[in-house]
Known about the structure:
Number of domains: 2
Order of helices and strands: HEHHEHHEHEHEHHHHHEHHE
Number of helices: 14
CATH architecture of the largest domain: 3-Layer(aba) Sandwich
Strand order of the largest sheet: 2-3-4-1-5
Radius of gyration: 22 Å
Oligomer: single chain
Strand content: 5-15%
CATH superfamily of the largest domain: P-loop containing nucleotide triphosphate hydrolases
Largest sheet: 5 strands, parallel
Shape: globular
Amino acid sequence: MSFxxxxxxxxLINSFKDLLKDGSFPSxxxxxxxxxxxxxxxxxxxxxxxxxxxxxxxxxxFGESRDESRPCDKxxxxxxxxxxxxxxxRVVDASFQAALLDEPVEKQRxxxxxxxxxxxxxxxxxxxxxxxxxxxxxxxETMTVEAxxxxxxxxxxxxxxxxxxxxxxxxxxxxxxxxxxxxxFRFLPLENQDLAEILGNFSIEYxxxxxxxDISGGSVxxxxxxxxxxxxxxxxxxxxxxxxxxxxxxxxxxxxxxxKTALVLDFLISVxxxxxxxxxLSFSQKAAEVNRxxxxxxxxxxNVSPRVIMQLALNDYLKFGDFAFGEKI
Length: 329
């Protein structure tokens, strides 16, 4: 992939190209905005552009001239970075932490101080094969307070040989002292047409891709989650009032039950608010249904049983006809 294949936020992408070309990319940057809009993908391409050796020259991130076509996606360093095998590149995420702690990935719900200590060690070490290092911290808002304080120490005494990109879905969950030390770049939601085109790459038919784009608020991640829910509802709707029970994970997976229920509620709220129900609801019907679903979301936050909430929400929904994208559920 290259920058040209990233959909949306083109003004921001162009500014990154200029920063790379001028060698003025900041030592610590913060990419923020809702999830699923290309923040991490852009950070990853910047990392590859940093390491790319397509033409003669040094690292543009640190002041030297750089060809605009980078990353080339062909040279050995682009290949190493793409596979996360480049010795001067680290992506700090759930997979990184799971490998570090020798624990299952699904248990990594927060980035811990262990990961940041490892990154501190890495950041201050001499680069192996490049002039400099690059670190991406994905979902930075999930760092514990201890981990954020560890990062803050790095930012207070920044290593000369490393650049850090923080990727966050909610910068308000980061310590103000971290935000103040990073150059902020806000990513906007994707346009519906761009989102629908991306969904087509996941073998989603055009009519359904348009439907999902209309209800997903410009987020690829949310659209794909909604596609999964839609597929499950369509395949199990014949179960009637047993639908809710069939969609929930086992009782032993309490966290997963709550997450699945929250996702289903988000899906139903989005579908209803966007008027994507056949036959169409009147304004008063739509408002009443959205308010009811929002009350269920509030109950979920106050520890009401996910099974009860899922049953209420889906049983309410079974009285409607179908989703408005041209095929019945």
